[in-house]
Specification:
Length: about 140
């Protein structure tokens, strides 16, 4: 039987056994249900040691998701929006897929272009208007008579 995996891109799918889920109690109001149910879901994914990623993908993820990855190279995502552990698990997986897709999406290179004549003229006109406005705020010049 083939293990279940999560499709990220056409060429990348991550097996579920590479993901670790931790469950804990959610904070906030909710009475006895919140006090007794472990509905908060934390997804952990080891970016540094994942066999599913190429070196290029690993570097892209480490660079673009650095605020979510700890020093050990583990990506941490948390969901506690719902009162249901199952819904929180689905939400955190959806967020994981969206984050990886966005981080692995190739960025377009900027093609250098010259400013148009109109944009140069508009910029200079705006500078002149700004200069006149500032000049109007100065105290009047003392008159020699």
């Amino acid at each position: 039987m083939k293990a279940e995996s999560i499709a990220i891109t056409r060429s990348l799918s991550i097996p579920l056994e590479e993901l670790e889920f931790r469950f804990s109690r959610s904070g906030g109001p909710g009475g006895q249900h919140a006090n007794r149910s472990e509905t908060r879901v934390e997804l952990l994914y080891d970016v540094a040691r994942s066999p599913s990623l190429t070196e290029v993908q690993r570097e892209l993820l480490s660079e673009r998701l650095d605020r979510l990855i700890d020093q050990d190279g583990v990506l941490h995502l948390v969901s506690s929006e719902s009162r249901s552990q199952h819904q929180n698990r689905q939400a955190v997986i959806a967020r994981f897929v969206a984050l990886l897709q966005e981080a692995l999406r190739p960025r377009k290179k900027r093609r250098a272009t010259r400013p148009s004549r109109g944009s140069r003229e508009r910029r200079l006109e705006e500078k002149r208007r700004h200069s006149v406005k500032k000049r109007g705020r100065r105290p009047p010049e003392p008159e020699d008579t």
